[in-house]
């Protein structure tokens, strides 16, 4: 197989089956939704000082399951992880003039929700191996305005949360875990999401468990839980009658989860271990298959952590392989398997940060920070993040359902085939 003509040069691809749709929804999810539809109560929320302020039956059941599984005191279901991050940051009293240190290698919502509170994100560089925020870089970025750290367990691997918590304690900072990509990963024996002051999960269509749109915030902190729940459901009109009139900063929105979403999420959450296991099995199969390829490094797994593989992210060494990364990626794609060079552009390179314009046209919330002129979003800010994104990351999502272990073998075969036919590939591009 390895020596046959490359698909990019007109040969037969290793895999020419159509890409199967990602679908983990089955009969149990269907009947759970039908039960809700039959009940006629599609949402249980009412905004006001009533019992229904806390949501419907399925929403509360989902919250109970999260509390039990993660052994935490509070769980608040919301309609997305973006909403969850916004509520959690708001509930941590983060606002205008504050700074929150985060990573540039993440989905944009991690940082945009910081802006939505009126604070500004300060980007720290990432760790060369885990691809998560680097604790040493966090320390270098702490200023008198720093109020918290938003650590992301990116691609399914925990950030160095033990060290991050130590730093946070020393400087009296909040730690928010964006755990959208890492449900059920572990760090020193503890589930991610439970290690910081609050953790946020996502159930959007790409996530390990899905319900359309949705998310959950977990925390042991009563004040964070109460304020986050208030923000979810127009809390400003309910706090006084709930006897919490001292809590004035509870501007609320509608981040409520519907009963249908909660019903699907409940079924999916029961399957979370199995959903994770199949990804881990497929990831391990690729790791084993590429271990002897000099120039491609399998995802690192820290000895005190487990990986839940949202994406399978490798490091590519162009000098060793001898093929420009993007050409290599294109050639493997043509063999029939998804591969991408880079992840997202480091967030500070987006126009929002380059121009420091977010709300209106006057520069809020950047202008509300007394250090605005010193805060840099220039290219070169996080050299490790930029190098990995521009030159070294190659990632695939073929560890998702319904790919098989045979697909993993064929993916490895595709990589080997491209490398074995390097000369033909390079000469075709001259
Ligand atoms: C790391 C990270 N944070 C936050 C989000 C936002 O999740 P949601 O789509 O549920 O708002 C995502 C979604 O892709 C994510 O990957």
Q: Which short descriptors sum up this protein?
A:
alpha/beta, Aspartate Aminotransferase, domain 1, globular, binds pyridoxal-5'-phosphate, about 425 residues, four-stranded antiparallel sheet, 2 domains, Aspartate Aminotransferase, domain 2, 15 helices, seven-stranded mixed sheet
Reading the helices and strands in chain order gives: HHEHEHEHEHEEEEEHHHEEHHEHHEHH
Q: Strand-residue fraction?
A: 5-15%
Assign an overall shape.
Answer: globular
Query: What hetero molecules are in the model?
Result: pyridoxal-5'-phosphate
Number of separate structural domains:
2
CATH fold field value of the largest domain: Aspartate Aminotransferase, domain 2
Strand order of the largest sheet: 1-9-8-5-4-2-3
Please give the largest β-sheet. 7 strands, mixed
Describe the structure.
This protein is an alpha/beta fold and 430 residues long. The chain folds into two domains: 7-24 and 272-343 and 386-428, Aspartate Aminotransferase, domain 1, CATH 3.90.1150.10; 27-271, Aspartate Aminotransferase, domain 2 (3-Layer(aba) Sandwich). It contains 15 helices and 13 strands. It has helices at 27-39, 57-70, 81-91, 109-116, 135-140, 161-171, 222-232, 259-270, 272-290, 318-321, 325-334, 351-354, 383-392, 405-420, 422-428, and strands at 74-78, 99-102, 120-123, 146-152, 174-178, 186-187, 190-191, 198-202, 215-219, 296-297, 312-316, 340-341, 393-396. The relative contact order is 0.17. The mean pLDDT is 96. The structure holds pyridoxal-5'-phosphate (PLP).
């Amino acid at each position: 197989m390895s020596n046959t003509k490359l698909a990019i040069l007109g040969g037969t691809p290793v895999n020419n089956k159509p890409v199967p749709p990602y679908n983990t929804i089955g009969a149990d999810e269907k009947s759970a939704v039908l039960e809700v539809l039959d009940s006629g109560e599609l949402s249980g929320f009412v905004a006001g000082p009533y019992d229904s302020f806390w949501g419907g039956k399925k929403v509360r059941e989902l919250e109970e399951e999260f509390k039990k599984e993660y052994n935490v005191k509070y769980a608040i279901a919301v309609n997305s992880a973006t909403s969850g991050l916004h509520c959690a940051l708001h509930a941590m009293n983060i606002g205008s003039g504050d700074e929150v240190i985060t990573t540039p290698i993440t989905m944009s919502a991690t940082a945009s929700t910081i802006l939505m509170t009126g604070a500004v994100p300060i980007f720290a560089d990432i760790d060369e191996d885990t691809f998560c925020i680097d604790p040493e870089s966090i320390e270098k970025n702490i200023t008198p305005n720093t109020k918290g750290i938003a650590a992301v367990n990116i691609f399914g691997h925990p950030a160095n949360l033990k060290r991050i918590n130590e730093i946070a304690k020393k400087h009296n900072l909040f730690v928010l875990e964006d755990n959208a990509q890492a449900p059920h990963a572990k760090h020193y024996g503890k589930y991610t999401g439970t290690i910081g002051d609050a953790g946020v999960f996502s159930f959007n269509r790409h996530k390990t468990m899905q319900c359309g749109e949705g998310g959950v915030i977990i925390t042991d902190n009563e004040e964070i839980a109460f304020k986050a729940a208030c923000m979810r459901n127009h809390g400003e009109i309910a706090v006084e009658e709930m006897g919490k009139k001292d809590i004035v900063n509870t501007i609320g929105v509608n981040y409520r989860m519907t009963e249908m979403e909660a019903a699907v999420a409940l079924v999916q959450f029961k399957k979370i271990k199995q959903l994770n296991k199949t990804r881990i099995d497929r990831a391990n199969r690729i790791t084993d298959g590429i271990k002897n390829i000099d120039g491609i490094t399998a995802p690192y797994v820290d000895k005190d952590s487990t990986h839940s593989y949202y994406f399978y992210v490798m490091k590519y060494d162009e000098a060793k392989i001898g093929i420009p990364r993007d050409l290599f990626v294109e050639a493997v794609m043509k063999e029939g398997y998804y591969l991408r060079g880079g992840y997202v552009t480091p967030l500070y390179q987006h126009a929002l940060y380059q121009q420091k314009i977010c709300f209106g046209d006057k520069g809020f919330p950047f202008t509300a920070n007394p250090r605005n002129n010193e805060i840099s979003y220039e290219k070169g800010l996080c050299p490790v993040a930029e190098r990995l994104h521009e030159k070294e990351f190659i990632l695939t999502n073929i560890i998702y359902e319904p790919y098989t272990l045979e697909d993993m073998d064929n993916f490895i075969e595709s990589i080997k085939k491209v490398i074995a036919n390097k000369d033909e590939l390079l000469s075709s591009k001259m």
